[in-house]
Amino acid sequence: MSEDAAAEAHAVLEAADDNYDGKIISQAALPAQPGAFASRLRASLATWAGSGRVRGVWLKLGLDQAALIPLAVEQGFVFHHAERDYVMMTRWLPTDTPSTLPANASHQVGVGAFVVNSAGQVLVVQERSGVLRGRGVWKMPTGLVAAGEDLTEAAERELLEETGITARVESVLALRQAHGFAFGKSDLFVVLGMRPVPDVQVPVPCQSELEDARWVPLAEYTRQPFFAGMPLYSKLLQRCAAWAEGRYTGLKAERLDSSVTRQRSDLLLWGEDDDTLAEARAALQPAQVGSKAAGASGSGQGDGEAAAGPDAAGGSRL
């Protein structure tokens, strides 16, 4: 081997420093030949370990670099995560401390679109596949949030894809966390209160995903036998109904500018303060008093409607 070839074989791989005393090896600059890759990776690890400053090493390999994976494993790398077109591997260099490299993402995030129109009707669907297939259960449209997508955007997108309905998010009504889902991940499910824009729209169910989609009275949705006896669904549906009837505000969601290591904007969720809630309740009271008075002096059905509550009128009050 010539001196130039020997020097090349022992050259440290091109890598960038991360913010936690680690190295991110440049995928684009990796040698294509397995032998050269193995030699340079070995030399790089020895140099970085010898410096006493480098802790974690990140190595990203694409599909066309799959032949290099066994060579990285031989030098102590393990899998961190994989996507359709690459695998990420890591190596912890210090021998006297356990690895503190962050684990792969622990959660998937789903959204539920609770859509209510001005008539107090809820948009519901029946799934063509999944655990609810063939059970006759009407549910809110749901879906998973894509990488780089806000919760609000995901709910609006999934709703449009599944039902053809355009709507805008007004409030975050509830969050549910569960564990043991796909590939051992945990799951966050976020329910968002939405209004159709325009108000009058006819749902067109996506044939590949849904059996049907329709508008139904609020009570017809919340009182389905399937949900009975499950405290989580009972509480969730209570919050949804309260929002539809104007008795619950939920959390607001807004994208706001933020900056830590780079300029960006993030989605922030927050609840109303006591003063805002008090003003909202005060604004509702005159209308509610007037409604009760009209009911009592009307056709003689006021007492029956009051006893049955808003759900008995098909959820028409917001």
Automatic annotation (TrEMBL):
InterPro entries: Nudix_hydrolase, NUDIX_hydrolase-like_dom_sf, Nudix_hydrolase6-like, NUDIX_hydrolase_CS, NUDIX_hydrolase_dom, Pre-Nudix. One of its GO terms (molecular function) is ADP-ribose diphosphatase activity. The keyword Hydrolase applies. Residues 106-238 form the Nudix hydrolase domain. It comes from the Eukaryota. Residues 286-318 are annotated as: Disordered. Keywords: Hydrolase. The keyword Hydrolase applies. Residues 287-296, 304-318 have a biased composition (Low complexity). Belongs to the Nudix hydrolase family. This is Nudix hydrolase domain-containing protein.
